[in-house]
Amino acid sequence: MIRVLLAEDQAMVRGALAALLRLENDIEVIADVADGEAAWREIQRNAPDILLTDIEMPGLTGLELAQRIQRHELPIKVVIVTTFARAGFLRRALDAGVQGYLLKDAPAEQLGDALRQVQRGGRAIDPQLALEAWSEGDPLSDRERQVLRLAGDGLGAGEIATKLGLSHGTVRNYLSEAIGKLGVGNRIEAYRLARQKGWL
């Protein structure tokens, strides 16, 4: 039996995925949760075989969960199901040790097959997206990405500094580096371009 933890913030999508997986004889949904922090608590409590997660969620994102699992060297495989058909997201997911990356508009029957493939030690990744992922690299560092994401949320440099425990000048340097790397005029343009590319 493949024990799956489902993390998805949209209730209707979460319910549909759980119902779909419950039709499979060899897959058990041990819990379904609406945010990344709840998912992390369930991971520690129940140690699923596979975490099936969206990318964008409140608290911790799916990518941050994957990074945390990788950092703690937990024997849990991660499969992402998302609407983001962007090479930048896939590239970051692969760097975080994700074994599966499926799009929400893929045929429903692919989900169970993908989970079995991942459980056997394989990968389940959209082939076209995989090709695109290696054609364009992400120029941002993790810290630049973090600072840019908060700037995109409307926080000023001082607020970002407080939130991340950095100095005001350090935050300004990170923003300046990100703007320079992306070849745009300001932090909002940098945020928009990075979002569009799937780097945030």
TrEMBL record:
The family database entries (InterPro entries) matched by this protein are listed as: CheY-like_superfamily (IPR011006), Sig_transdc_resp-reg_C-effctor (IPR016032), Sig_transdc_resp-reg_receiver (IPR001789), Tscrpt_reg_LuxR_C (IPR000792), WalR-like (IPR039420), WH-like_DNA-bd_sf (IPR036388)
SUPFAM superfamilies per record: C-terminal effector domain of the bipartite response regulators (SSF46894), CheY-like (SSF52172)
GO molecular function annotation: DNA binding
Q: Which residues form the HTH luxR-type domain?
A: 133-198
Question: Keywords in UniProt for this one?
Answer: DNA-binding, Phosphoprotein
Under Gene3D superfamilies, the record lists: 3.40.50.2300, Winged helix-like DNA-binding domain superfamily/Winged helix DNA-binding domain (1.10.10.10)
Residue ranges annotated for the Response regulatory domain, each copy included: 3-119
Q: Name one GO biological process term.
A: regulation of DNA-templated transcription
List every position bearing 4-aspartylphosphate. Answer: 54
Q: According to its UniProt record, what is one Pfam family this protein matches?
A: GerE
The name this protein carries in UniProt is: Two component transcriptional regulator, LuxR family
Origin species: Solilutibacter tolerans
